[in-house]
Input
Amino acid sequence: MKLNELIQEVFADGRYDPNIFKAIYIVGASEASKLYMIDKLALTLYGLKLVETDAAFTDVLKKITDTLNLAHINDAVEVIGPVSKKVKDITYRSLDKYVEGRIGLIISGTASDISTIKKHYTQLKEVGYDQYVIFVNTNLETTLKLNIANAAPSITEDITIIKWHRHSSQMGMLFSVFGNKYGIIDNSEGVDITKNIQNAQITVTRWINAPLTYVAKLWIQEMVRGKKIVKDIK
Output
């Protein structure tokens, strides 16, 4: 039996999502740029589920304060710590739910916390995920304009500059984790963004259509065996 037929047998009850065992990370300093790229690359049309730390950060912040501008929050540093922990808890719960069914993932977040990315990468690799990362690069001037235009939580210029430098310094670290499954899209003002997106779409489509990992194939085969045993018992 071919692999596609095995997959259809495992998910014959309609729970099958296309492109299981695939996870793509969209990282960068600008929240607006990342969401724009996810939309333009049409990643959700591949059946991938979005896990977004930036949105979770905003939702949690809204619940504990009446502003998203960190400059207007008393003891902002003390606030950010608990918020970040809560965001990680929410993100991990979402990931756990999706990974249990080996559903394809879009992980949108920051590149500054490379240890968290490495943790996700290692855990997903162990269960058979094929993973790719896109670093959405914007120069500092563009990042500042985007954050102001979109009223991001990190709207203060000083915080934005610090975040931008931190993200830029992680590009090499991301390459060390993902190797050749690593792409960069420049979304700075003045670049040919349409051409950049088209080139990225070609690469992402090729990756999406690549064969599943050995571990993923074993999992599917085990699921098929399990379903056959249940049928025999009935």
